[in-house]
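The records we work with from here on pair a chain with its fold. Here is one such record, which you should read through line by line:
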Amino acid sequence: MHYANLETYLREAETTSSSVLPIPVVARWMNVTPPAVRAMLRRGVLERVSIGSVTFVSVLSLKQWHAALEAEVKKVIKLLQKAARKGRPISYGDLLAKLGRSFTKPADRRRLGPVLEAASKRGLLEYGVLLGVWAFSKTTDLPKYGVWDLADAHRLRKEGEGMHAFVAAQREASTGMFQKGG
């Protein structure tokens, strides 16, 4: 049996409570380091399965983590679309609060990066705009997550364009784009 990637495997493979994946495979798929996956295992975000002295990740816990991430991505997309519709950016703290999370909790702040990156990627693919520009850090008044790597990968920034100018142009391009019912 062959699966093109881990996403396909998670969707199609018959899994049981004893199905496991190696930490490096999970890390590569999550786009994090193996130590980051081990930290998620220690915090109970993912379930650890040990065979002798070797630690693996429970496939069921990874599926649950991914389903929860997808649900949050959908909520964030709606919140960012609302911000674009109204022409009013939302701070990371306010965004976390609307997700029922707290900016004061490091785990909640860590979760925001992958959620915003996925939302921005989906926004770019489905709507042609970087939705992540509508969320910002109060420290810099700029987005941190889900904007810069995508902008660079898709060559969206003009030569010499500053960060503030880029964000302003992206926001202007999508202001009012997501009208209710549309």
